[in-house]
Amino acid sequence: MGNRNRNTAILLIAAGLFILIEHYINFFTIAALLFIALGVYKIRSSPDKTGYVLLGVGVVLLFSGHFTFILSVVLISLGLFYMKSKQAHRDDSYTQKQTILESFKRDKEPWELKNTSMWNVVGEIYMDLSLVMLDQKETTIVLQGVFGDVDIIVPEFLGVSVNASALVGQINAGNEKETGLVNKVNWQSPNYETSDQKVKLIVSYVVGDIDIKMV
What keywords were assigned to this record (predicted)? Predict the structure, then answer.
């Protein structure tokens, strides 16, 4: 499984890069990305709907006449996902899932958390880790994709390590915050090293709003 995933990852990344080179990024693509970045910023900083309008304009610009750009981003993202999943999990005993649209919510009743890798083009993820049932000392979760809205609630008794990145958007993890372009946050809960149960979160989106809160 490891060699197959690695070869698939290399093929997807190469295909995505080839499409980008063949159909170079033009002014309208850059304008669309700027609209998306400004929209994400407005959504986080202002209560009005201006941010959603800007974000919508940016997405429409990208999809109308820029299908090859979107396709290349999706292929590269999926290829990187395969590579990161293999690196993050020590063996093949983990769940791997790829979807176009994903709405994953676990916030109302106890649920079981195992080693998992999830990739989606558009994803809405809400996890309340205060309700999880863990069957091992350390659990690794990989969340990756193109557009993502991720909210994770972390209880104080759980040791958590966060490696989060978003090319465009915002990341909040513990007392760390990054907003704008090329965001990256590495953070550990104070009790991570001494905790009996640990969760390692690896979250990466091209455009993302990532919020990880301690309660």
Answer: Membrane, Transmembrane, Transmembrane helix
